[in-house]
Amino acid sequence: MGRWEPNARGRLMQAAFALYGERGFEQTTVAEIAERAGLTERTFFRHFADKREVLFAGADALRELLVSTVAKAPGSLAPIDAAAAGLEAAGALIQEGGELARQRQAIIASSAELQERELIKLASLAAALAEALRRRGVEDPAASLTAEAGIAVFKVAFERYVEETDQQDLPLLIRESLDELKAVTAGR
Amino acid sequence: MGRWEPNARGRLMQAAFALYGERGFEQTTVAEIAERAGLTERTFFRHFADKREVLFAGADALRELLVSTVAKAPGSLAPIDAAAAGLEAAGALIQEGGELARQRQAIIASSAELQERELIKLASLAAALAEALRRRGVEDPAASLTAEAGIAVFKVAFERYVEETDQQDLPLLIRESLDELKAVTAGR
Question: Which of A43, B77, B131, B179 could potentially form a cystine with A39 if both were Cys, beta carbons 3.0 to 4.6 Å apart?
Answer without folding.
Answer: A43
